[in-house]
Design brief:
Blueprint lengths: L2 E4 L2 E4 L4 E7 L8 E7 L6 E6 L6 E3 L7 E6 L4 E6 L8 E9 L2 E4 L3 E6 L1
Parallel strand pairs: 2-11
Antiparallel strand pairs: 1-3, 3-8, 4-5, 4-9, 5-6, 7-8, 9-10, 9-11
Amino acid sequence: VQLVESGGGLVQAGGSLRLSCAASGRTFSSYVMGWFRQAPGKEREFVANINWSGETSYFSDSVKGRFTISRDNAKNTVYLQMNSLKPEDTAVYYCKAQTGGIYYWGRGTQVTVSS
């Protein structure tokens, strides 16, 4: 499985961005899809994930209420809608696909939020 993130960029505090993660392969719907982020000098941290059907999702406390996650299995794509962005949301955002003990990472997309 290859994952390619897009949609990152520079935005002012309070603004919005939508990240996309396009996956290759025909088994996309079997994967739990997630978003993680890593700020300079910090460890990679969980942001959100979504189950195969899109009915169940989880968010970190730091983004709950501001970010939403969705997926389109017909397009092999997962999305992260980020609203009310804060400077502390600045990071490289990574997409992760996981099934059982097998997982794949994308290369990331930079999100920068200016104050």
